[in-house]
Amino acid sequence: MQIGNKLFPYPILNRTKNLSAYKTSNFYFEYDETDDEADFVLHNAHYVLQNDELRDLVANGKAEVKLLVECSPTVFRENYAITEEPSDIRIPFGSLKDRVVISCFMYAKENITCFSSSDFLEDYSGYQFDIDKYSILAVDDGYTTRIEYDDTIDDKVSSIFLIISNEDTDVIKYRNQGTKIVIDVPSDAFTAYDTLKTNEYTRNIFFGLLAIPALQFMLQQVQVDMKVNDTTLDDETVDFVWLESVRNAYKRINDNDLDDSTFLKADVEVLAQELLNKSSSKALDDVFGIITQQQMEALIDE
Amino acid sequence: MSKIHIHYMTDEAIETLKKNQKKVTEYMKANQNNSSWISNVYSGDLYTEKKFMIDDFSLRLASSSNKYTEEVGYENAITIYEALKDLPAYVLTDERFWAWINFDYCYKAAMQAMPITSKSTFINHWVFGAGQRRGVFFGVFSREFYRVALSVDNQSPDKYEYTKFVYDNPERIRNLTWRANSSNRKLVLSAIKAEKKAFDYCDSIPEMSELYKKAERGQYNLYTELAKYISLYGSVRLIDVVSEEDMIDEIYSEMIRFINEKREN
């Protein structure tokens, strides 16, 4: 659960300063993300609270802090008590997949009357508020992380591309599907592709015709997203999961990590070709070879 | 009981089916008992075996003399839940797993449970065409699994008491599952318990029983309004920490208020 820009009918302390109704107070949680064989572990999870009145509520048992872990794709939502003392929270891996939102809330354990803080913003200064039981007092919208399962453990290694026969299109289209880049191919053209895809002589041709333009298109989309939204490659990997494979491939080829600034400056058409073994230019050689071979055979037949 | 490995439909197969809806719908209408037609749409590998194992199970089918009734649906839902409940959530919410259940393992029962009645039946109910989360709660058998998973009360001597209650009228759970807070099983089960408490109370008083029935009808009925009320109640509260007792009291009071309003309409 994330509060975002939602307005409350009473002052709340928010980690995001411009959404907070307090002047200088702070509330946030911290953890180190680790994992072992069985569990996703929030290591040393604890909160930091800098506000005397709210600290008094916790000390007097009138409020407490919970960490909320939510994974909508797996219908998982659990809350965990945390304190200022670091402790580990373990969540079985099987419960999580894709996007996981981890947020933190301080809430009233009972009805609280006449609550006020000397650090309220001016608009609220001097006012007292009655807070209902279970109402949120402080919020840290936290983090979004992503859990991926390696299907290769019990499955064959799969490509980042999915090439699909689509009866509703007469042109080739590309789309992001999280873990894969989907290439929709018109049904008739797909039949030709499907017949020839295992032929060793057509590999570069199909990569040049289908995969490289698709990757180029998607990389461009990621670049635009990063520039417009001021995000990082790590952020983008949440939605474009296949980027992780791209980054691994880049490192294998260049012996360097693909960092944000290198990626933002990169010519995506060049990057896509380099990542996919320069198949476009190799495809030209292969086409030339195939046609020359056919002509030679025709000459011999004559 | 013998064990079998679960399977996933391959990514390529599932995407191909989704992108050839017209063809798929025609094949499904023409083939109620057997899904071998799929190889006419996708010629590659259809399924991959996964490491997890389940008890081999079968579902009740309608026959020429018996229709696929709500009672059959309820029994099948329990069978599915009992057979699959130990699988991890990431499998139970995977479109590829349910595609194997629907198109291969339980095809005939799935065709009876969710016949192809419109152009959108396949994309909305047989695969997760409307998105991951909606797909789970729309899918032919995935929604049956989750209706049981969210209503089973392991503390009760009759653990399926509330499951039976929601299967008597699926609206009682359907509206609760659309919203993000439905991931909180405690909240959903509390809401169903409150619904049953209100139902039992009204059932004991003839006038209230009539009003309850009235409140269940219409576009803005007891259940659609209840789901909205829970969202409203949780708007400034951390709904996840509300005790079951408080949640039942809150929802029960709201239901009785809504039902009593019907006296004036």
Description of the structure:
The complex is a heterodimer of chains A (302) and B (265). With 302 residues, chain A is α+β, with helices and mostly antiparallel strands. Helices cover 33% and strands 30% of the residues of chain A. Chain A has eight helices and 13 strands. A five-stranded mixed β-sheet of chain A has the order 1-10-7-4-5. Chain A has a three-stranded antiparallel β-sheet with strand order 2-3-6. In chain A, strands 11-13-12 form a three-stranded mixed β-sheet. In chain A, helix 3 (203-229) packs across helix 7 and helix 3 runs antiparallel to helix 8 (279-301). Chain A is elongated. The N and C termini of chain A lie far apart (75 Å). The model of chain A is unreliable at 152-157 (pLDDT under 50). Chain B has 265 residues and is mainly α. Chain B contains 16 helices and two strands. A two-stranded antiparallel ribbon of chain B has the order 1-2. Chain B starts with a strand and ends with a helix. The chains are: A alpha+beta (302), B mainly alpha (265).
Shape estimate of chain A: elongated
- What radius of gyration of chain B results from the CA coordinates? 20 Å
Helix content of chain A: 25-40%
Number of helices of chain B: 16
Rg value of chain A: 27 Å
Based on secondary structure, the structural category of chain B is mainly alpha
Largest sheet of chain A: 5 strands, mixed
Biggest sheet of chain B, strands in spatial order? 1-2
Count of extended strands of chain B: 2
Major protein interface: A-B, 50 and 42 residues
Distance between the termini of chain A: 75 Å
Listing every helix as H and every strand as E from the N terminus to the C terminus, the arrangement of chain B reads EHHHEHHHHHHHHHHHHH
Oligomeric state of the chains present here: heterodimer
Biggest sheet, spatial arrangement of strands of chain A: 1-10-7-4-5
Integer average pLDDT of chain A: 86
